[in-house]
Amino acid sequence: MTKLLGVIGDPIAHSMSPLIHNGWIRDMGIGAAYEALRVPEGEFNKALKTIEKRDCLGLNVTLPHKQVAAAIANEVSAATRAIGAANTLTQQAPGFWRADNTDAPGFMYAVGDIDERADRVLLLGAGGSARAIAYALSAHGVPWRVLNRTKDKAERLAREFGGGATESGALNQYKEYIESATIVINTTSMGHDGSILDLPDGMGRTFFDISYGKVSAPQLNHARAQGWQTRDGLTMLVAQAAYSFEIWFGERPDMEAGLRRCRAALEAIS
Ligand code: ATR
């Protein structure tokens, strides 16, 4: 029987998760179908009860449900508990859900090699995405600092996950922090309202924006023009999907194939 998989969120129409997972399901000849399920805020529990009646193996969870997914699961991984958010649910027995967070390992895969002694990592933003990244960095012994517009959120993140110095206010004031970092990770949603962070000369250092497509393009173009090596969030998206897929099917899918399909889809709409 065909198993149901899906991603729950709102909005969800533009999610690339169905493209990624259905591609792997097809490639690997698995009897499953992955759907995008729009579930408004406050309706997660009700939706899960309905989904339980279908033959559902697992779900990805995105905004605004990641926290509630971690809170209501019957079993929760240690990382998910620390981060306070789940992006992967697995129905291990009827009505028994396990929660995992694959954003954290997805980030580590996407950022590539970090030298925890030599690299200086600067995290921009202290929202939901930053939590998984801060957790992942600390779990790998990588020191980091955080800058965020709202000071208490930066301080809370540093306190919870063991980050170094924090600052707050308009990010464009903090060029000296960026000057001294070797890897800058932009987790803010500045790109969504068209704002760009003004960067100093990158001199071959890394600027990683966890957004992708049209949202990240202006910021990454600016970073490249300033001499930074850039990465967008597409590899992280595909990697978190691959780790979820591995939890469900016990086999790591072809990340490169997933990435190729995403890049082609983004090119087709640009
Ligand atoms: P996500 O789950 O994607 O991380 P979020 O939790 O809403 O989204 O967090 C968005 C982050 O972007 C926050 O760190 C936010 O700063 P505040 O904590 O001060 O709200 C940051 N952000 C959003 N717009 C910004 C802007 N124009 N300039 C600087 N930071 C911005």
Describe this structure in words.
The mean pLDDT is 94. It contains 11 helices and 12 strands. Helix 5 (103-111) packs across helix 6 (128-139), helix 5 crosses helix 10 and helix 10 (234-249) crosses helix 11 (255-269). It has 270 residues and is α/β, with parallel strands linked by helices. The termini are far apart. The structure holds 2'-monophosphoadenosine-5'-diphosphate. 2'-monophosphoadenosine-5'-diphosphate binds next to helix 6. 2'-monophosphoadenosine-5'-diphosphate (ATR) binds at residues 125-130, 148-150, 153, 171, 187-190, 193, 195.
What's the arrangement of secondary structure elements?
Layout (H helix, E strand, L loop, with lengths): L2 E7 L7 H11 L4 E7 L5 H9 L3 E6 L4 H7 L2 E2 L1 H6 L4 E6 L2 E5 L2 H9 L9 E4 L3 H12 L4 E5 L2 H11 L4 E3 L6 H5 L3 E4 L19 E4 L7 H9 L3 E3 L2 H16 L5 H15 L1
Parallel strand pairs: 1-2, 1-3, 4-6, 7-8, 7-10, 8-9, 10-11, 11-12
Antiparallel strand pairs: 3-5, 5-6
Helix pairs in contact: 1-11, 5-6, 5-10, 10-11
Bound molecules: 2'-monophosphoadenosine-5'-diphosphate (ATR).
